[in-house]
Specification:
The chain is an alpha+beta fold and 125 residues long. It has 2 domains: 49 residues; 61 residues. Helices cover 46% and strands 14% of the residues. The chain has a 4-stranded antiparallel β-sheet. The chain is extended. The two termini are 28 Å apart.
Length: 125
């Protein structure tokens, strides 16, 4: 959990510096590059943490070869594509995940049901 909040504090500090006019365009580009590298480093660390995690998927996935898989470990939720485990895994805090799930239960994403279903293929990495 601490890993994720450090990035959040860094982004907040950058936004305050921007607002105060302390950053030039060059500074901003350097910071963006730094934060991008930090995000990759954090994702790699989290990915290693989930190497031995048990990912689960919906019981309805037996119909399709592709599904969303989810694992939870130490307050972090990992989400990946079941048809291509080599693609990037996305990480959320448990609080972010709970907000998302509550939105799903409330129907916030029901508009997606109106989309015609197309066979999906794994995108090249």
């Amino acid at each position: 959990m601490t890993i994720l909040s450090k990035g959040g504090f860094m982004r907040l500090a950058v936004r305050i510096a921007e607002w105060a006019g302390w950053l030039t365009i060059v500074d901003r580009r350097l910071l963006d590059s730094y934060l991008s590298h930090k995000r990759v480093e954090i994702d790699q660390r989290l990915a290693k943490k989930f190497d031995d995690a048990r990912f689960i998927r919906s019981q309805l996935c037996f119909i399709r070869p592709w599904c969303v898989e989810v694992a939870c470990k130490d307050g972090i939720v990992a989400v990946r594509n079941s048809s291509d485990e080599k693609r990037a895994t996305v990480f959320f805090s448990i609080d972010e995940w709970r907000v998302f799930i509550n939105g799903v239960k409330k129907g916030d994403f029901d508009f997606l049901e109106d989309e015609p279903e197309k066979p999906q293929q794994s995108a090249p990495v």
